UniProtKB/TrEMBL annotation:
The keyword Protein transport does not apply. Belongs to the class-II pyridoxal-phosphate-dependent aminotransferase family. MalY/PatB cystathionine beta-lyase subfamily. Keywords: Aminotransferase, Lyase, Pyridoxal phosphate, Transferase. The lineage of its organism: Bacteria, Pseudomonadati, Pseudomonadota, Gammaproteobacteria, Vibrionales. It comes from Enterovibrio coralii. The keyword Transferase applies. NCBIfam families: C_S_lyase_PatB (TIGR04350). Its cofactor is pyridoxal 5'-phosphate. GO terms for molecular function: cysteine-S-conjugate beta-lyase activity; pyridoxal phosphate binding; transaminase activity. Its EC number is 4.4.1.13. This is cysteine-S-conjugate beta-lyase. It is an enzyme of class 4 (lyase).
Length: 385
């Protein structure tokens, strides 16, 4: 909980007048918006200060990343993950979703398969559709209380070698943090089937268990690096998603050239305020991040206790992210999303991810909001008895 720290995560910020996608969805209703993955926390003060200073400059022409931002990011990868990257590996993007779509087109050829976990964050599935590539789903299953894609099941569906394997680490939804041996198994699968790998690691900074560490897929060994595109961003970490600054790390020069060729002339450059926010966040946001992680871990623990104390619902341990993947398969209703929405809690429907018997709850909110959402959910479930 906040209160003892430097930053106030309990602060209620009115987002109803800010053209917020999250809050405007239920505008004029008594439904708490707990769906799309942005948080309700004000960004770190250093980010706000840097933006105000840059706005005061008053000129907002075409721009590029500063050497300082690149140096900070290279240093961050080395210090946090023992991953030593080169500046020329970095491709800046105006969003992570466009990175997924570029990778789908650039890292697979016409007729080649894209393999994706399922259930998964919807842009994984749509990227294959937009690229007009056949999609093979690797069903995400429980293994000792952790959600992981079953690559053996995916293998049964493959008809030829080549194509793209999509990863999400930490997993969204599910919150699983991949262990090194799991990454090595993924690499072995990719090598066996001659697959390139796009790893979405946008939630890598939001590890809630202190004994776990994020391991980038490309850092496992040189073989992994040379067949991979890694996507990262400060957006979820520091709640600056609306500014649009993401990073692709591509060690292999041929893959990087293919990626840039597809990107050229279609994906706009990153804007000056996004670069400003990213640099300030990475350079000065660590204390804020650590307090946020403690606050979110408290939310996670509350959710685990409250949801698993209810009949019909089940929530597995969330290792990372502020997104709870709640199993409603025993709930005696046809549409769990609509059921909770009618109770005043606006969650993400599991169908969007690939399983209609689940809902995803965004707990990147104040404790007051979370407690009210849980109160409404408990009351709704109690009315079923």
């Amino acid at each position: 909980m906040s209160g003892s720290g430097q930053f106030d995560f309990d602060k209620e910020v009115d987002r109803t007048t800010s053209c917020s996608d999250k809050w405007d969805k239920y505008k004029g209703t008594d439904i708490l918006p707990m769906w799309v993955a942005d948080s309700d926390f004000q960004s770190p003060p250093a980010v706000i200060d840097a933006l105000q200073e840059r706005v005061a400059h008053g000129v907002f022409g075409y721009t590029h990343a500063s050497n300082t931002l690149t140096d900070i990011f290279v240093k961050r990868m080395a210090e946090r993950y023992n991953w030593h990257i080169e500046p020329e590996w970095i491709v800046y993007l105006s969003g992570l979703v466009c990175g997924l779509n570029i990778a789908a087109r650039a890292l697979s050829e016409e007729g080649q398969t894209i393999i994706s976990p399922s259930p998964i964050y919807p842009p994984f599935i749509s990227s294959a559709k937009f690229a007009e590539r056949p999609l093979v789903k690797a069903p995400v299953v429980l293994r000792k209380g952790r959600w992981l894609p079953d690559l053996d099941e995916a293998e049964k569906q493959l008809k030829a070698k080549g194509g793209l394997l999509q990863m999400c680490n930490p997993l969204n939804p599910g919150g699983t943090v991949y262990r090194k041996e799991e990454l090595e198994e993924t690499l072995a699968f990719a090598e066996k089937h001659d697959l390139l790998v796009c790893s979405d690691e946008i939630h890598c900074d939001l590890i809630l268990d202190g004994d776990l560490k994020h391991i980038p897929f490309a850092s496992v060994n040189e073989r992994a690096a040379q067949r991979s595109v890694t996507l990262m961003a400060p957006s979820k970490t520091f709640n600056i998603a609306g500014l649009g600054a993401s990073i692709a790390i591509i060690p292999n020069p041929n893959i990087r050239a293919r990626f840039n060729k597809v990107k050229r002339g279609i994906v706009p450059g990153v804007n000056v305020l996004a670069f400003t926010a990213a640099e300030a966040a990475y350079q000065h946001g660590e204390a804020w991040l650590q307090e946020q992680l403690c606050y979110l871990a408290g939310h996670r623990d509350l959710l685990m206790r409250e949801i698993n104390a209810l009949p019909y619902l089940k929530l597995e341990h969330i290792e990372a992210t502020y997104l709870a993947w709640i199993d409603c398969s025993e709930l005696p209703v046809d549409n769990p999303h609509r059921f909770f929405e009618e109770a005043g809690v606006g969650l993400s429907p599991g169908l969007d991810f690939g399983n209609r018997k689940f809902v995803r709850l965004n707990f990147g909110c104040t404790r007051k909001t979370l407690e009210e959402a849980l109160r409404r959910m408990k009351a709704a479930v109690a009315r079923l008895d």
